């Protein structure tokens, strides 16, 4: 086994152990998708989950990428790739199956789009939306070989397309967008970070039930804000309400009114 292959194997083992992931399809996807294929050429600016600043890898050997580290996409804006263990955990929570249609809101450079592509298989699909035109173009290039992935440049609040089994939002919002909820199939799942202006908040999983929706808090998070996320104190209060309510017990509702659950 080469040094790179051994590093990839350790990477998957680390994530599986840390997040207690048992999904063979998810672990297989993590093992088979080269992370370096979805980044600019190294050296790379990387940092651990707890680090405040980046460090530059000593060279462009992709072995440096097979650790639980963030990699800078745009260090100036503090825009990074997702932390592998964190997003593997979220994907595991969503119980993604073969043939599912998955929508990503904010696909970045496409690494997790490729992971999802492997999980849903050739009869499933991944609709990857990215609001940053430059990132969308790069993601489309990186994902060219993944036939079941479509990359779309635009506003992820609107460009969902057909109904979805799973919607994953990779940026912070103050509340779930009504269009996301309306686009879920029965038993469909939405995962969305609900954050305040300081980027802090909680990830909420919402499942479509027979008579409405059920929301539950998954984990705390700090994440880049989504395009169109409100910037007022009221938006922060809405996000805080969701975090507190969903953390106490599964929250059941039928619709949204001004960003908050309603029975209407």
Describe the protein.
It is a single chain. The chain has 264 residues and is of the alpha/beta class. The chain is built from seven helices and 14 strands. The chain has helices spanning 3-19, 24-32, 84-93, 111-120, 133-142, 178-182, 233-248, and strands at 45-47, 55-56, 70-74, 79-80, 101-105, 125-130, 149-153, 164-169, 184-195, 200-209, 212-222, 251-253, 255-257, 260-262. The strands form three sheets. The protein has an eight-stranded mixed beta sheet with strand order 7-6-5-8-9-10-11-12, sandwiched between helices. A four-stranded antiparallel beta sheet has the order 2-1-3-4, with no helix packed on it. A hairpin with a 7-residue loop joins β1 (45-47) and β2 (55-56). The mean pLDDT is 93.
How is the topology of this model organized?
Blueprint: H1 3-19, H2 24-32, E1 45-47, E2 55-56, E3 70-74, E4 79-80, H3 84-93, E5 101-105, H4 111-120, E6 125-130, H5 133-142, E7 149-153, E8 164-169, H6 178-182, E9 184-195, E10 200-209, E11 212-222, H7 233-248, E12 251-253, E13 255-257, E14 260-262
Parallel strand pairs: 5-6, 5-8, 6-7, 8-9
Antiparallel strand pairs: 1-2, 1-3, 3-4, 9-10, 10-11, 11-12, 13-14
Return residue spans where pLDDT drops below 50 for at least 5 consecutive residues.
none
Compute the CA-based radius of gyration: 18 Å
Instruction: Outline the biggest β-sheet.
Output: 8 strands, mixed
Helical segment count: 7
Which structural category fits the helices and strands? alpha/beta
Percent strand:
25-35%
Would you tell me the overall average pLDDT? 93
Annotation, overall tally of beta strands:
14
Principal-axis shape? globular
Q: Give the strand order, joined by hyphens, for the main sheet.
A: 7-6-5-8-9-10-11-12
Order of helices and strands: HHEEEEHEHEHEEHEEEHEEE
Distance between the termini: 59 Å
Helicity, in percent? 25-40%
